[in-house]
């Protein structure tokens, strides 16, 4: 068939602008552990196996079985996986996925138990992000005076590049919400006293103290802005404890408008799902705002991923949308996402070509930018 040429993104090495360390997993994974990797719920921990009834895991099973040349059956898949070993699976799946760059949030899982991610991509194509909340929690536990804490936060973040980080990441979206704003001195003092009381009681603190967390975040964002570094925000879907009502990106208005933060590049993660229209709108009106589409997490079926992708590209400038997997712990999420991302971004662009909105060459250039070029620029990757 001499059919019409379609948008072909298969040769593009993706830059995964939002992912996490891979674990080592020296022992083979059993079924329950395997399922628990593909849900944000406690169902699997509680022995209620709903993950196997979600289309994400069915898709992964079928596609991975095809790649490994075994039957699309979980037991066989896990046996095959165990026989190959985790490290060999990782290099095979990374090579097959065509991953040419990684931006890694070192906040989860603990990178000290993980594989060295920088060895998985060419030199200069790796960027580590500092997760802010664990740093704040440690510093709150170490400092009894608020003034001292604020000064030490500024000092810790004064030279992020020098400390080996290409940006920062906040998970306030699933703690106290995205309406991050300045608070009065008394409110911050009270919030700090409550956090310190938690330290005194338990030896540590989980920062759910909004006036204090907002204050520390705004200091950190000002530092990132001075250094013109990217700041990733977890937006929308996330851990079970997210209050999805507070994880709507429209709550970020103060952060997006504050002149002292204008130097930071704000990256809205997870396609803001289910708020992707809101996220795409923000990327279209705020010059320093970018929209990440994570093809791995949320764990969605292709129909929803396709809608998010097409919708985002229909609203946000092409220069502001970036591909990611949000992969963590196992290479399968990185792998499946790279294939899904290329295919679904390709289909969305194909539709734009068919409807006469874009020329074919133009569409392929857009595909490259979304899969790799924009992130390489935003995170300053080489090559
Ligand atoms: Zn993530």
Describe what you observe in this structure:
The chain is α/β, with parallel strands linked by helices. The chain has 2 domains: 14-26 and 94-378, Metal-dependent hydrolases (TIM Barrel); 29-84, no CATH class. It has helices spanning 31-36, 55-68, 74-84, 86-97, 132-142, 146-156, 185-202, 210-226, 253-257, 276-285, 302-315, 331-354, 360-378; strands at residues 14-19, 99-105, 126-131, 167-170, 230-233, 265-268, 289-294, 321-324. It has an 8-stranded parallel sheet with strand order 1-2-3-4-5-6-7-8. Strand 7 (289-294), helix 11 and strand 8 form a beta-alpha-beta unit. Helix 4 (86-97) packs parallel to helix 12. It starts with 13 loop residues before the first strand and ends in a 5-residue tail after the last helix. Bound molecules: zinc ion. Zinc ion binds next to loops.
In whole angstroms, the N-to-C terminal distance is 38 Å
The first-level CATH class of the largest domain is given as: Alpha Beta
State the helical fraction. Answer: 40-55%
- Binned strand content: 5-15%
Low confidence ranges:
none
Q: Give the distinct bound molecules.
A: zinc ion
Global outline = globular
Keywords:
383 residues, alpha/beta, TIM Barrel, 2 domains, 13 helices, 45% helix, binds zinc ion
Summarize the structure.
The chain has 383 residues and is α/β, with parallel strands linked by helices. The protein has 13 helices and 8 strands.
